[in-house]
Amino acid sequence: MQPQESSVQYSRWDDRSRDEVHVAAGSSAEAPWSWERISRKLCSGKLGIAMKVLGGVAVFWAIFILGYLTGYYVHKCK
């Protein structure tokens, strides 16, 4: 197991009434396939546009089929 790299950043504001300390783990602590990375990849650029178009087409057909089946059973002759 490798030791985790971390950095500590300390900043003091000019009025000296607020102090901040930031502790951040190194890049090795992050998972290479985090949800943010996946959503950025799938929701931006040409791939994002293609995913939105395919999602819209899938929703259209799902609503169309649901409406067709509902209309068929509502207006079925007895």
UniProtKB/TrEMBL annotation:
GO cellular component: cell surface; plasma membrane
Molecular function terms, GO-annotated: protein homodimerization activity
Keyword Membrane tagged: yes
Entry-linked Pfam families: DUF4731
Assigned keywords, A-Z: Membrane, Transmembrane, Transmembrane helix
Domain of life: Eukaryota
TM stretches of this protein: 49-74
Matching InterPro entries: SMIM1
Protein's name according to its UniProt entry: Small integral membrane protein 1 (Vel blood group)
Organism for this UniProt entry: Neovison vison (American mink)
Gene encoding the protein: YA047
